[in-house]
Amino acid sequence: MGDAPIGVAITPDGTRVYVACLASNAVSVIDTATNTTTDTIPVGILPILLTVAPDGAHVYVTNVGDSTVSVIDTAANTVTATIGVSASHV
């Protein structure tokens, strides 16, 4: 698994766990049947939080270091989009 795990999300079917790894700028994929890391997916800088879509098809990762959200396709375990976001101040 990557360095400094911080955020965790589980697929709806419970077969995989996605872990945001802060220091390695990656998301680790854990197979729950074998309790082993099966993949490491590079994402943006300083990934913190993540969530799995209700259908399990995508994982969304917030990257606070570069103000982006990485969209991971769970079938291929690859980033299919990077969305820029910014904070608005009131």
Give average pLDDT, whole number.
93
Instruction: Please list the strands of the largest sheet in the order they lie side by side.
Output: 1-2-3-4
SS summary, helix count: 0
Indicate the percent of residues in helices: under 10%
β-strand amount: over 45%
Gross morphology: globular
Query: What is the SS-derived class?
Result: mainly beta
The H-and-E topology, N to C, reads as EEEEEEEE
Low-pLDDT stretches: none
Using only CA atoms, what is the Rg?
13 Å
In whole angstroms, the N-to-C terminal distance is 39 Å
Q: How many beta strands in the DSSP annotation? A: 8
Largest sheet: 4 strands, antiparallel
Summarize the structure.
By secondary structure, the chain is an all-beta fold.
